[in-house]
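Let's practice the habit of predicting before peeking. Look at the sequence and jot down your guess about where helices and strands might fall. Then scroll down.
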Amino acid sequence: KHAVVQLEQGLDQMIWPGQSHLYLGLAQTAFGQPEKAEINYQISLNDRPSFEAHLALAESALNKRNFSVAESHLEVVRNCRPVLGFIHQENFLRGLMLVRQGRLDSAREVFLQLLREDPNQHRALLGLGYLETLQDHPKGAKAFYKKAVEVIDSQIADFHNNPTEESAAFLVRLKQNRLVAGKALNSLEPRP
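Done guessing? Here is the structure:
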């Protein structure tokens, strides 16, 4: 929560012009303030359009099951063909949308394609673990969640060894995903 306070102070002092609202939104998302985060993503998009803001707003819309709004933000990313990382994130969110629409086989194909492109796509691993859980395959779910934890831990170590200003927002999201993966993995452990 200290990060949110610092980012809010940074906004007041214009420390990160154009990007403050995006970073603040990511921190607010990580700390369970989705309404505030969405406002900051929208401000970020209006002040300085970015793929990150479109992807964050798409994810926010998905969480509200507002698929048409999510699709409109994902289309911006898809039509511009940005760097590969944003394309992977856009594809992950499309897979998530398919899950929420109950199209589990299609979602599985999207997540598997992401892993074929990059075996370290931790969000695809989380998605596949979730699908395995939904389909009552605990061994498969556990394997995907365990691999996600390993990949995320490795990525977090890389960020700590090579910190950059640009990686700060991604690191917040990565730690949030690590928490999710760890909780999912623990939920599959036998109870004493």
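How did you do? Residues 146 and 185 are 7 Å apart (CA to CA).
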